[in-house]
Design goal:
Elements lengths: L3 E6 L13 E8 L2 E9 L4 H7 L7 E3 L5 H4 L2 H10 L9 E5 L3 H9 L11 E5 L6 E3 L2 E7 L7 E7 L2 E5 L9 H5 L4 E5 L16 H11 L4 E5 L7 H9 L6 E3 L5 E3 L1
Parallel strand pairs: 3-4, 4-5, 5-6, 10-11, 11-12, 12-13
Antiparallel strand pairs: 1-2, 1-14, 2-3, 7-8, 8-9, 9-10
Helix pairs in contact: 6-7
């Protein structure tokens, strides 16, 4: 079984000139069909997602937290599922996320008042360390350090584990999140020496330190890079700590794991 990861968008905080905000497509074969799972669906991501898959064929969307750059394009997906000329989907799409996700998307979708979106979505609240299953995917949400309720996810399929940090700074959740993962997708929105606020984002260096401390991580890939960052600076800061290659997430690229 091959697990495919497509970086639909990896720009931090807002869509950049070369990448939408956070969105990662996971695909694998199971029971004679392809299963498709999204980690986040941030601002600007729904458009390029259509280059890689039919959004109406998704099996689930999993949200790390409720900042717009991680969830806002659910409003566009609601329009697709409601008004496609091929007809409304017979099943509601499961959307996993923090407490209050349904209300958050309803507020974003409405204009004069919140507009209910549960006609096409079924919302499932995630809890720290409470595992859930989507077809061949086993997911464990782990609460991380961010100004709002936020989760990283361990995603396992076919014996391969990806650790996705979402938005986080250093904290106790990172070691159980990252330990023994084949690939860690790590927030690296901050730059050492420039960004001094804590409790919001990792730097490349802090991401590398967390991966080393977790143990057993095979690949480190930096992501959530805002357009005002020089990615090579973030990579270099991580490389001061990480003993192997420091990879940068590339929008539009598919990785086979």
């Amino acid at each position: 079984m091959t697990l495919r990861l497509t970086v639909v968008g990896c720009s931090g905080s807002f869509a950049g000139p070369d990448s939408p905000a956070s969105c990662y497509l996971l695909e694998t074969e199971h029971k004679d069909r392809t299963w498709r799972l999204l980690l986040d669906l941030g601002s600007g991501a729904l458009g390029p997602l259509q280059r890689h898959t039919d959004p109406l064929a998704l099996d689930a969307v999993v949200l790390s937290h409720l900042h717009p750059d991680h969830c806002l394009d659910l409003t566009g997906l609601h329009v697709m599922r409601s008004h496609s000329p091929t007809g409304r989907s017979r099943r509601r799409l499961r959307v996993y996320g923090p407490d209050g996700t349904a209300e958050r998307i309803a507020r974003a979708h409405g204009v004069e008042q919140a507009t209910d979106v549960t006609d096409v979505f079924t919302f499932v609240t995630v809890r720290d360390r409470r595992e859930f299953i989507v077809g061949p995917f086993r997911l464990v949400p782990i609460e991380v350090t961010h100004p709002v309720e936020a989760y990283g996810y361990r995603v396992e399929a076919g014996g391969v584990t990806i650790a996705y940090t979402g938005d986080t700074d250093s904290g106790p959740g990172l070691s159980p999140l990252m330990a023994d993962a084949e690939l860690v997708l790590a927030d690296s929105a901050f730059v050492e020496g420039r960004d001094r606020a804590r409790g919001i984002h990792l730097t490349g260096r802090r991401a590398a330190e967390a991966a080393l401390a977790a143990g057993g991580v095979q690949r480190l890939m930096l992501t959530h890079l805002p357009s005002w960052n020089d990615p090579e600076v973030c990579r270099a800061q991580a490389a001061e700590v990480w003993p192997g290659e420091v990879e940068l997430a590339e929008p539009g690229r598919t990785y086979e794991l």
